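Lecture 7 notes: from sequence to structure.

We start with a single chain of 101 residues. Read the sequence below before looking at the structure.
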Amino acid sequence: MHQFNSSNALPEAERFGRVVMAVLTDGEENASKEYSADDVRTRIERLIDVCNWGGVFLAANQDAIQSGNAIGLNQDCCMSFSATPHGMGMVEAMLCNIFHA
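Now the structure, written as tokens:
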């Protein structure tokens, strides 16, 4: 996980412009040996709550709402998709809408 330099003189909530974090997963096991699920959730919640980041969770082959909630993302920001070319096209279109809004 990338560590942000907290030595910036600005208050934390003012350090970043518009940031949207996108988590895209195929549902395969990605068990980290360095960070627990609670560590990830805490970091994501901090970025959303303190730094005003946005976040989306896009998941193939799993319940995106359940998995996204587990790492601190609201169900309205979670989407399941089919692991097919058509499904990936839907993901691409959705991300373009978010980043160009």
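The beta strands are 20-25, 54-60, 78-81. Keep this in mind for problem set 3.
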